[in-house]
Design brief:
homodimer, 422 residues, alpha+beta, SH3 type barrels, Fumarylacetoacetate hydrolase, domain 2, 2 domains, eight-stranded mixed beta sheet, five-stranded antiparallel beta sheet, 8 helices, 26 strands, globular, Fumarylacetoacetase_C_sf (chains A, B), hydrolase (chains A, B)
Chain lengths: 422, 422
Amino acid sequence: MYGIFSYDPSGPHAGYKYGDHILDLAAIGALGFFDDLPVDPSVFSRSALNDFIASGKPVWQAVNGRIRQLLADDEAALNLVRTQVFIHESRATLHLPVQIGNYTDFYAGIHHAENVGKLFRPDADPLLPNYRHIPVAYHGRASSIVVSGTPIRRPNGQRLGPDNQPVFGPSQALDFELELGLIVGRSNPLGEPVPVDEAEDYIFGVTLFNDWSARDIQRWEYQPLGPFLGKNFGSSLSAWVVPFADLEPFRTTGPTQEPAPLPYLRGSQLPTCFNLNLEVVLQPASGRSDGSGSHASANAGPPKVGTEVVISRSNARYLYWSFSQLIAHHTSNGCNLNVGDVLATGTISGVEPGSYGSLLELSGNGKRPLHLPDVGEHDGSIRTFLQDGDTVTLRGWGFAHGRRIDLGEVSGTVLPAAKTPV
Amino acid sequence: MYGIFSYDPSGPHAGYKYGDHILDLAAIGALGFFDDLPVDPSVFSRSALNDFIASGKPVWQAVNGRIRQLLADDEAALNLVRTQVFIHESRATLHLPVQIGNYTDFYAGIHHAENVGKLFRPDADPLLPNYRHIPVAYHGRASSIVVSGTPIRRPNGQRLGPDNQPVFGPSQALDFELELGLIVGRSNPLGEPVPVDEAEDYIFGVTLFNDWSARDIQRWEYQPLGPFLGKNFGSSLSAWVVPFADLEPFRTTGPTQEPAPLPYLRGSQLPTCFNLNLEVVLQPASGRSDGSGSHASANAGPPKVGTEVVISRSNARYLYWSFSQLIAHHTSNGCNLNVGDVLATGTISGVEPGSYGSLLELSGNGKRPLHLPDVGEHDGSIRTFLQDGDTVTLRGWGFAHGRRIDLGEVSGTVLPAAKTPV
């Protein structure tokens, strides 16, 4: 997995996560290990991956291959330079992996769309008429995307109060959204659509993405132009980008698309998806009062206060639209994507309640509070929406044909809202 | 007005529009005319105004003052260097004035919101319940904003066909939107709202902005997350940015806001707006068949084919929300604005039909075709939405206390849609 890290005065530059160490790609390049490849090694000294990504898919392939080769055979090739090129992750500060020009958020998780429809339009078809025809999406805010580990301040905002009059203050319905974020690897010129059969060439890699949402702000503001302040106070991107090619072993048949999409969304082959496990882990604020700050797995031992609780288990295969279809649709009107853009999938919920990708769904919009038995019976053991001090971590991994891939994690802790001006 | 132009091998750099000439600010800086000012003159050699803007308001004021001084007194101070520093605009290529990080589109024109409400919800209150409480907005696409003069390709897209089934093809309802675009002059850190009384310090300048819209694509896609492909195929920004301070003589009392907005939107003084005339000029495609390409005013003589037609006259004072309120609201949840961001106002329509800022309104969603008498009686004299080859130009100016200000123009010609993949 590629990312940007810093640990010494040379500043942020590119690295490759390998277990609990980071392979310093700038150092590897300076030592000549990329000299016979068609890559300018200075791209690894930059503070974002954009220039490396813009070098093109043949370069990604060559660099991927060389890194695998160097790490194979117990890293014998790196023996003499081990201390120069391996940095323990505890010594590193992680940064946003890419400079993000534009961020688009799709709505490609069909069970999420159905769940939201049932909550807000109980007497109608839960899916809106366009859902199975269009990968619905909207533009989000790129400037407020932060790297995993950055705290998220609870937003203030306008919402409808108990007497149905607007009030301003801290959101009372702060939520997470379990998503994947694609990192765009290739730019298309304005006016030139990307055909669906070529669309995967435009994906550099995949991240975990938490599209934090203030449901009360969103509900009051979103008609008629969509979400705005309910979303743009912050979104969290994982620090490490999984090369898209590494997902190949986990590719599987996508869900049946009925009715068949229009030709511009229909490739020469049936759409595929990826069998990747996703989970949402909550470390409740109240659980932190013992000061343990433990990061042990929720399943690793007897539950105790301070332990993380897995509150949802989902899978990337619940996405209705394929990655290729997202890109073909996005560019079908000529809209230009740029290297480093983030295309988030939308919330990925499964069919069963334990697989929902947001608290809105998990708590039935607050009507069925979530009990956190693992943290014991006390005031902090119930959630409708997030409390200050709660930490949400999204994790992902795949296991297929005897191979495991780790998608890493994206994590953030909720800070109390800023004092509001009166 | 500040902008970015190129005319020689030195590449795009900053200029100041003065009549039909451009004062070359890089040349002025190199000649030492800014040496006693607190500005690094190299900012004027860059291909975007961002570094100049980021230098801060005291620098804008000092540079504005020096430019006025140099241009006063029949430019005597520049006599010896006249040929080095004045470039006739016919020799220049104009570029986007800023590198745009994020683009937000508001909905602050209340008559536009009412007109759209009447068209699409004829039996309900034309304004949605949130309108007078929130400056409604959504995020648009920054990557597809182009400079005035760039042709706009008619988008292909998915829309509902005559039998209410989705079809894909060229938009049949291509429209313009008459807007102003604010250029953000100062960044606020993520998590730190800008108080409404300080908000104007965050505006560097004002542009004309055409938010081209494909109404049929938009109508089918926009539920529940707002406009996407109906907008992001292209938006046009004027090449020249009017310094915000230059608008001061045109400031006037804003519309009465009833009910009173919540305190975070209420400054220590009543909101103000700006009395700036805006107009929409259509040069119909059919009018070009005589090859005249005339740019004469529609009122300057007898109408003839090829003449531009003023199809709408509006005014910036029709905005319901003040610029300060747009910024205070946008940042109220902690969202960070960056130097060079564009905040567009939304369509600025007046009360009377001749003052509407979009063809959607002017033609009653196609039900009352617009007749263009000035171009004669022929097939090209009727418009519901835009035809290929049509050129739309938005212009603006103010006149108050004996002073006139020119806001320049933003113009674009519609190209036929790209061939669709089958």
